[in-house]
Amino acid sequence: MRIAHVGVAGPFTENMSYQDNILSHQNALDGHEVLYIANEYFFKNGELVKGGFCDYVLPDGVRLIRLPYVFVGNHFVSDKFRKVKGLYRLLVDFAPDVILSHDLGYWSVLDVISYKKAHPEVKLYADTHADYYTSGTNWLSLHVLHRIFYRHLVQKALPYLEKYLCISDECRRFNIENYGVPESLTEFYPLGGMIPSPEEYDMARQRRREELGLVPDELLLVHAGKLEPAKKTDSLLRAFAAVPELKAKLAVIGSIPVETQSQLRAQMDSDSRVIYLGWKNSDDLMEYLCAADLYCQPGKVSAIMQNAVCAGCPILLYPHSGYVKDYDYGNMLWVRDETEITAVLQEIACGKVDLPALQRNSQRCARELLDYRTLAARLYR
User: Are 2-189 and 198-370 in the same CATH fold?
Assistant: First the structure.
């Protein structure tokens, strides 16, 4: 089977643990011929950069083609318009059996629709990550970009979709309310992960805990991602500092924005139990998650949460409605603010939290909900 991923709406970075990467990787592992068509943007050391056109095969066998955006007036408009040249021709040459469009809010989705019209036997799916936390966060974006421009493109595509795959209940609600997507067309399709084998888990855990100098009864907490203010890294660091009796290290992984770098580095430097590891690729990050006893995400949503669950981590998490509805397998410690983070860490220090039980529940969540082998198979039916 030939499977084409069309991801020109957002950046694609090789060797990352995002849905686009792992899903296409799993398609290749399952023996399919896979083409990923991306735009020219990718992350390098945590910073978004442009790379221009390229065409090459990744180590897993996925062919990656990057197409630059067509310049429309200025760079800001071009990045919102999201038009590329050559997409239709690539689809004709590849002749896919299945197309997965990552998002529908890009002008070149019209090329995908045209291809589907000319080849009605092709199965066309689309996924969406758009929700009220990350999309349409100001009046102009919501009322013009999303409710007029992107809605027009989504409406064009809807008659040709097999399913519209929403990564959360919040995404489903955003798309129904702003794009007019019929609820019957939507399907829950969570951000998943690759579950390490017991041998891989044990080796990674031992290696990273030795690297960080952890003694056998010392806990490892991990906090990771793009460490912007909405991640609430500062609140986590203050709460951790307020519980000196907790025998643990806190590993902070990710890039820090320039405007908050001095503040966060000062907070980290003031507590010898905090280790700042900088930006890590997906393989390294997964090893640190295997080494962790608790993954801490007290702020905005992030796909790292699902990866942490796949690594068997208990999760300290802000109760976004989609998380509460979709992912609570009895593996979450819910926190709304710094006071609640401090209280949970104090309970852990006093031995009142059964972390091994939470770990077992995360392992069950990973098996039943997040395994990319199961998610990928849903595209082949």
Answer: yes
Q: Say how far apart CA 18 and CA 20 lie, in whole Å.
A: 6
CB distance 73 to 66 below 8 Å = no
Look at residue 74 in the predicted model and tell me its pLDDT.
73
- Nearest 5°: CA angle at 301, between 17 and 361? 75
Q: Kindly report which listed range (232-241, 276-285, 335-344) carries the lowest average pLDDT score.
A: 276-285
CA 348, CA 219: separation in Å to the nearest integer?
10
- In the chain, DSSP assigns E strands to 2-7, 33-39, 41-44, 47-50, 54-57, 63-67, 98-102, 123-128, 163-166, 186-188, 219-224, 248-253, 274-278, 294-297, 315-317, 332-334
Mean pLDDT lowest for which of 10-24, 115-129, 286-300?
10-24
pLDDT: is 170 or 3 the higher one? Answer: 3
Which residues are 251's β-sheet partners? 222, 275
Q: What is the pLDDT of residues 101-123, one digit of tens each?
A: 999 999 999 999 999 999 999 99
pLDDT digits (tens, 9 = 90+) for 59-88: 999 999 999 998 876 767 778 889 999 999
CATH topology of domain 2-189: Rossmann fold (3.40.50)
Tokens of 242: 């307020």
Rounded distance between C-alpha atoms, residue 226 and residue 255, angstroms: 5
Q: What is the CA radius of gyration of the chain?
A: 21
Domain boundaries, the chain: 2-189, 198-370
Between the CA of residue 125 and those of 22, 29, 33, 162, 193, what are the distances in Å? 17, 20, 17, 6, 20
- For residue 16, pLDDT over 80 is answered with no
Task: Name the pLDDT band for 321 (thresholds 50, 70, 90).
Answer: confident
* CB 357, CB 348: distance < 8 Å: no
Map tokens 């796909």 to a residue. 303
All residues at 6 or more sequence positions from 187 whose CB lies less than 8 Å from its CB, including other chains: 163, 164, 165, 166
Eight-state DSSP code of residue 353:
S
* Fold of the 198-370 domain: Rossmann fold (3.40.50)
